Amino acid sequence: MAATTRECLELQLLEMEMLLSMFPNKELVLENPNSILHTRRYLEGIRESLPSIIEFLIFVNVQKSEVKAEMHVSLPHSYPQEEPQVFVRSVALDRQQQNFLNKELVSYIHSLDRGELCISIAAQWLQDNISTYIQNSKQNDEPECEIKEATYTFHRMWIYSHHIYRQELRKKILEYAKRLNLTGFCLTGKPGVICIEGVKEQCEEFWRDIRYPNWKHISCKHSESKEVTGKIDDLRLFNSFEELALTAHGDYGLRNDYHMDLGQFLEYLKQHKSEHIFHILFGVEGKY
């Protein structure tokens, strides 16, 4: 018989206690420091609504090296009956080896029995195997006789959400965009709009990372790509990544149900040669 959500959350708390004892020196960092407390209160009946999912980082030391790897973990409410979402990054890995490593790690987790708590097992697998991928990355970095100018795919994504309010989420969006060298903007409030532009793989990484299972009302409305050799900055419409602070109107009560001034937003798009996106996002032509 499949475990209930309550039973799964109870197991998640047990595993988090075990992991925090295994990594006592800040090797484990919660994305939301209150997620464990909220889960416990839900199980105790103090909270009626489901808590947000538990997300965290585990910093794994690479053997015989000062290099560290970050294992990003997201636990769906139905974990361990459902597989966790796990993704690894390290400055010592090139993009190809990082992709290979993550595919192998996901495959390894998939081979384990469902219902089994597996985060500590995955962390041990990573510690045992990551040095091989790092060594392969170093070999790929060896210079060739003829150096060819790199070719990239420049990519721009227009993402629409019913709303973007939570301070935690807004902070994550800004941090991820900066870390991945993406430019664009985030329009907070209702509706929420995100534009990112940069190297395609980094755009896709951003899109994968900000989506989480309970963010239902979000979609990529439009994307644009172009192959480019050398620098991509000439194709950017935005100089940096910023959070837009536009005029809002509506109910400023507990629900924060306020709408952003779409006339101002249209003017902002026009300033960045993107007014055609207004119709794609909202289904109506922009008017001044």
UniProtKB/TrEMBL annotation:
Stated name of the protein: RWD domain-containing 2A
InterPro entries: Phi-like, Prp3_C, RWD_dom, RWDD2A-B_C, UBQ-conjugating_enzyme/RWD
Domain called RWD: residue spans: 14-133
Coiled coil: none
One Pfam entry name: RWD
Superkingdom of the source species: Eukaryota
Species for this entry: Xenopus tropicalis
Entry-linked PANTHER family: RWD DOMAIN CONTAINING PROTEIN 2, RWD DOMAIN-CONTAINING PROTEIN 2A
Transmembrane region(s): none
Signal peptide boundaries: none
PROSITE patterns, A to Z: RWD
Gene that produces this protein: rwdd2a
